[in-house]
Amino acid sequence: MVLLEQNAIPGRATSWLCRRAELTCLGFPEAARHLPNGSRSMVTGNPVRSQIAALAAAAPAPASESDRKLLVLGGSQGSVALNEAFLSCVERWPHEFAGWRIIHQTGRRDADQVRLRYASLGIEACVAPFFDDLVEHYQRAGLAVARAGALTLAELACAGVPAVLVPYRRAVRNHQRLNAYAFEHVGAARVVRQASDGEVTAANLHEQLKQFLTNDGLRCRMARAIRSLARPDAAALVAEQVIRSLSGESPAVSRESQRGDK
Question: Considering only CA atoms, which of 134, 116, 133 is closest in space to residue 125?
Fold first, then answer.
């Protein structure tokens, strides 16, 4: 048995099964500290589609082409709270978004309402419940506002898109917040905590956004930092460990991964 733990803190299934597994592949190095003694792990990163992994090797687009597209990503099902917080910022301070092309993934529930609100502001945003292919948008993006799911972060790292992250506050074991802090710790993102009051969340989001929207140097520095976290070879590393297991070889476990702090 070979496991893949995507988040910065292991879920219940991983915590229970890792003692029996030959190896647990980790999306975040931080997860190793939360595994029980005696479990074997290796930091592989989280696999992403090959087209997105390829972005890690591509040269960044010239600033004039890449720094004016803003992605809003609420995860595969969208995020009502994130949609509302971002739209509140746009409605209150529309001048700060001048010159930015907004690409907004809303989830199925909010798509029509979000389109109408942008239209009422005279903003021509690209709004969809879900984008089947984000590669082109990633290539041209200068900033993202997103939840902190493990795969979203893996894709942003490969694409080199700095982010303002609003972790889902009810995620199991608070894993989204810990994912986000791992990126913030190295200067790759800024974290906005979702408050119970949506107005507070919107105000906190605006405090971060107003720094990014006009500061090209800050975005460039954070783009370099988030690219440093990219693991475009994650799928190959995981596949290699599965093949080793099937062939009877011992897993390639690093000394750090064997440590186990619990």
Answer: 116
